[in-house]
Amino acid sequence: ELRHRASPWQRNLGYPLAMLGLLVLTGISVLIVCFHVLELLLDDAAMPRGIQQDASLGQVSFSIFGSFGAALQVVLIFYLMVSSVVGFYSSPLFTRLLPERQDTPLTKIIGNCVSLLVLSSALPVFSRTLGITRFDLLGDFGRFNWLGNFYIVFLYNMGFAGLTTLCLVKRVSWAVQAELIRAFGEDG
């Protein structure tokens, strides 16, 4: 119903651009994680431990590409945050936790606050483990013992890259398949 009420500009330009943006961000995330996997295989310094050098904030760039890379990291972390929240509320186990307008009980509000707090607390470790950023938010996020275990970090990265690629291919191929069936179904 919402799609039918959208303007032609929204349907023909807005939705495809949003979908292209999501595909590009997902592709860049998977590409960065794949490069991080290669780094893990070749160099022990790629492990997501705390900052070893005594670098002051702002003096050393945490990205190879300088300011552009730092901005890309911020965009990717924001994308991962939003996709984590959307994925959390889309899972069958937590769809009942989704707040309803002017009809949300206090226990559901508290449950949402706890869930969002856990998701936001896990985001720095998540982005460091995937190799999206080396910045540890000046906290002790890099001091977890399991971040030094190669096998856990490697399998985590491989799982993210594999499952994200699988979801991306499945989503895109299903959309293309549905469009082809719709196009050929109308003509035949």
Automatic annotation (TrEMBL):
Membrane topology category: Multi-pass membrane protein
One Gene Ontology term of the molecular function aspect: transmembrane signaling receptor activity
Cellular component, GO annotation: endoplasmic reticulum membrane; plasma membrane
Main location: membrane
Keyword vocabulary terms for this entry: Cell membrane, Endocytosis, Endoplasmic reticulum, Membrane, Receptor, Transmembrane, Transmembrane helix, Wnt signaling pathway
Residue spans crossing the bilayer: 12-38, 64-89, 109-126, 146-169
Keyword Membrane recorded: yes
Pfam families cross-referenced by the UniProt entry: LMBR1
GO biological process: receptor-mediated endocytosis; Wnt signaling pathway
Location relative to the cell: Cell membrane; Endoplasmic reticulum membrane
Organism superkingdom: Eukaryota
Similarity field: Belongs to the LIMR family.
Record's protein name: Protein LMBR1L
Species for this entry: Eudyptes sclateri
